[in-house]
Structures are given as C-alpha cells and as structure tokens.
Amino acid sequence: VNQQPAVINHRIVLARRPTGLPDDETWRFEQVAAEEPGENQVQVAVDYLSLDPAMRGWLNDVKSYAPPVALGATMRAQGIGHVTASNYPGIAVGDTVLATTGVQEIAVVHGADITPVDTGLAPAPTWLGTLGYPGLTAYFGLFDVAKVQPGETVLVSGAAGAVGATVGQLARIHGCRAVGIAGGPEKCAWLRDDLGFDAAIDYKHDDVYRALRAAAPGGIDVYFDNVGGGTLDTALAQLRMHARVVICGAISQYNATGPVHGPANYLSLLVNRASMTGMLIFDYQEQFPAATARLAQWYRYGQLKSREQVVAGGIERFPAALRMLFDGANTGKLVLRLDHQG
Ligand SMILES: NC(=O)c1ccc[n+]([C@@H]2O[C@H](COP(=O)([O-])OP(=O)(O)OC[C@H]3O[C@@H](n4cnc5c(N)ncnc54)[C@H](OP(=O)(O)O)[C@@H]3O)[C@@H](O)[C@H]2O)c1
Fold first, then answer.
1. Atom of ligand 1 nearest to the CA of 204
2. What is the longest distance spanned by two Cα atoms in the chain?
3. CA-CA-CA-CA torsion sign (158, 281, 48, 17)
4. Residue closest by Cα to atom 6 of ligand 1
C-alpha cells in the first residue's frame, strides 16, 4: 500500500496553572499527527507566533474577557503562516494569513477567522506588531478612548514595547508631545533618537516623579498605561485638567502572587475632572480594516516605524520567550519564529 507518512505537529499545551511567572513546568511539549481541514476549514503551517503579555492572564482560572486556556489545551496565540490546504473559498494554498493558530506548528482554523497578510507591504512579524493588534490597540486607545487632541501631552508607559512605541509615534503624528517611560538607557535612546519621542524616562534608573515634572512641566493630558503599579500612581499625581487615563494593561501586576497594587492617587481624577477608562481591542473588530489601512499608510511613508525582536528556534522556545516580556528583554514586538521540525 502506498501510504503517505502522517505529518507531525508539535504543540505546547498548558500542563498546570502557574503561580507568579510561568516556569517550564507550566507547559508540556507534545507531538501529534497534524489535523486535516474539514468543511470550510483551512490548514496553516505557522511561521511566526505573537508573544503577548495577555497570555499570562489567559492562564488564570478566573472570569475575564476571554475564557481561560483549559488544562491540556493548546496554548492560545496569534500566528502568521502559509496555507497548506484549504476548503474555504477565496483562500488558496500558499497564501500568507493571520489567525488564532495556537502555539503549534500546524493549525486548522475556520476560513472566516482568517485575515490575509500583505507581505509585499511589510514582513510578517510587522503584521503581528505595529500593523497588527498592538498597533490597533495604540490607535484606538489614543484616538477613540483618549480622544487625543493636537498640542496635548501624551505619556505612555511600556513605551519601548509593541503597543507603547506605536502610541508615542501616533501621538507625534497627531501633533502631540510624546513622553515615554521604559526600562534602561538603550530603550530610552531608541525612543528619543529613532522614534522621535520628545522625552523618555528610564524607570529603572531615574526618579520617575521628578523626571516627569521636567519632561511635562504643565502636566499630562493623556496617560496611556501599559504597566500599572507605582507608575500609574506617579502619573495620576501629574494630571492636567480633563486628563484621560487609558487602562490598556498592567504588566507589572500580571505575575503578582499577592493583591494587585492599585492606584492610591485616584482622587487626582476628582481634582482634575479627569477620567480613567479600560479598553479592550476586540471591541473594535469592525473598524480594524479602516484603522489598519491608516497605520499601513503611515508605515509606508516612513512616519510610523516598526521594530520586532524575532526569537528563532521553534515551538520549544515558547516558555522562555514568553518570560522575556516580563523582564523587559524585548524591544518592540516580540515574535517567535518557528523552524518546523517536519
Ligand atoms: N487592552 C488591550 O486590548 C490590549 C491589547 C494589547 C496589549 N495590551 C497590553 O499592553 C501592554 C503592552 O503589551 P505589548 O504587547 O506591547 O508588550 P511589550 O510592551 O512589547 O512587552 C512588555 C514590556 O513590558 C515591560 N515590563 C515588563 N515588566 C514590567 C514591570 N514590572 N514594570 C514595568 N514594565 C514592565 C518591559 O519593558 P521595560 O524594559 O520597559 O520594562 C517589556 O518589554 C501590556 O500590558 C498588554 O497586556 C492590552
């Protein structure tokens, strides 16, 4: 009998729920036969995986905006890959696509849940960063939630990351003063010298309160918060009248083993008639095509720069690569490249 050998899929599943930073025991590496696509489904060989701070939240068995990843299930992740088989009209073998593939080499997804990716405009990793969810998060957080106006002062934390770097650049494009907070002199130099931030504060070495007073003497109109904790408190203490605080994330708290550090200076919202609003990018799904087109245009004309840090080596690198986000080892968007084992 002339049978083709089964195609092997390697994947990472959740083995146990972590306390604090997810260690290697959190995960299990599995080798299984690749699934074939059913009706309206597409099989994708994953080339790049997005590493996201939100992944930490998906590991907790608590009510959230998305269900937790189940024990024994493939870890949830966004990926970009090439189509290897398609039962969906309009999607062909060889197409480069974005989908929720999970942390595995070969994914089967519904054709309706796939977004084509234009690698002629930008390489695949950029579509997971500045032109993907992080860029869209920056866009809607700034323009829809904060309703930022030209001339205003925008402060962003996690500024040298995927979302933060885009926030500062969009603020500059919009005619604002952009101040970033990031860890380390190299990241701060990159923000100022390459991305055009007006000022950058190194929270690991500077006195953030004082540095902020110097960088934004008149106070802050918009604080785009990616880190929470003490930085949020420091920013709250320096709001201007009618300031808007966007709660995008709180990475400093994601691995907390005790109570989350909440803001003490919240009465600054009262004094300044300011607001603090949480945002979730998935609420803007219908507006993604229009926003992506605008981001892509700024990118094409060089007004919006993108940087990705690509970790090579395949699926087994996932546990260590995820931890990089929590010790600031990434500058720009952190992406895992899969070198298929076949
Ligand atoms: N609400 C939404 O819909 C939405 C969507 C996407 C992302 N987010 C959130 O946006 C934030 C940024 O996400 P991203 O994908 O762009 O990640 P990222 O900023 O590219 O990577 C994470 C960065 O966080 C910083 N960090 C880590 N631990 C920290 C700590 N204890 N204190 C301060 N900074 C710390 C590190 O930079 P340093 O070297 O500067 O410390 C690290 O590089 C996250 O909070 C994420 O959850 C929210």
1. 41
2. 80
3. positive
4. 134
Evaluated on CA atoms 294, 296, 302, 307, the torsion sign reads positive
Testing ligand 1's pocket by substitution, the residue of 140, 188, 251 carrying the most ligand atoms inside 8 A of its CB is 251
Q: Is this prediction's pTM over 0.85? A: yes
Q: Which amino acid is at 100?
A: T
Query: Is residue 325 exposed (0-12), middle (13-18) or buried (19+ Cβ within 10 Å)?
Result: buried
Give the ligand 1 atom nearest the CA of 163. Answer: 16
d(CA 76, CA 290): 26
Q: What is the pLDDT of residues 93-117, one digit of tens each?
A: 999 999 999 999 999 999 999 999 9
- End-to-end Cα separation, the chain, in angstroms: 23
Q: Is the CB of 163 under 6 A from ligand 1?
A: yes
* CA–centroid distance, residue 137 to ligand 1 (Å): 12
How many CA atoms within 13 Å lie on the side-chain side of 9? 21
- Find the 38 Cα to ligand 1 centroid distance in Å: 37
Detail the DSSP E strand segments found in 167-237: 177-182, 199-202, 220-225
Q: How far apart are CA 218 and CA 207, in angstroms?
A: 18
- Specify the length of the chain in residues: 342
CA dihedral (48, 54, 57, 62) in degrees, to 10, reads: -110
The torsion defined by the Cα of 84, 89, 90 and 96, in degrees rounded to 10, comes to: -20
Ligand 1: distance of its center to the CA of 151 in Å?
26
In Å, how far are 45, 54, 105, 171 from 339, measured between CA atoms? 11, 24, 9, 37
Instruction: Tell me how far apart the alpha carbons of residues 175 and 97 are, in angstroms, rounded to a whole number.
Output: 34
List, for residues 197-231, the tens digit of each pLDDT value: 999 999 999 999 999 999 999 999 999 999 999 99
Helix (H) or strand (E) segment spanning residue 110? strand 106-110
